[in-house]
Amino acid sequence: MRLSRNFPLGEHLRLALIGEVFNLFNIANLSGRSGNLLSRGFGQPKSRITQVFGSGGPRAFQLAVRIAF
Question: What is the rounded CA–CA span in Å between residue 1 and residue 26?
């Protein structure tokens, strides 16, 4: 989710405040499901997707400022 707000600072200058949230609901991204029909854990996830910022990790917030001229 991303929210931003622009503020004009003169005729040719703009300031933007930006806030972003990754994994807003803090839901685990699971992978590696078993495909063996005879396995007891058929269809159950075996692992989590990599815990890298912004790609499956825990909830994270990011703030930024952008100046355009």
Answer: 13
Q: Is residue 67 a contact partner of residue 6, using CB atoms and an 8 Å limit?
A: no
Q: What 3-state class would DSSP assign to 18?
A: strand
pLDDT at 40: 81
Name the DSSP letter for residue 41: T
Q: DSSP secondary-structure letter at 13?
A: -
The pLDDT averaged over each successive group of 10 residues in the chain (69 residues) is: 95 96 81 77 75 67 95
The model scores a pTM over 0.90: no
Residue 68 near residue 13 (C-beta atoms within 8 A):
yes
Closest CA to 30 of 43, 41, 46, 53: 46
Query: Terminal CA-to-CA distance of the chain, rounded, Å?
Result: 26
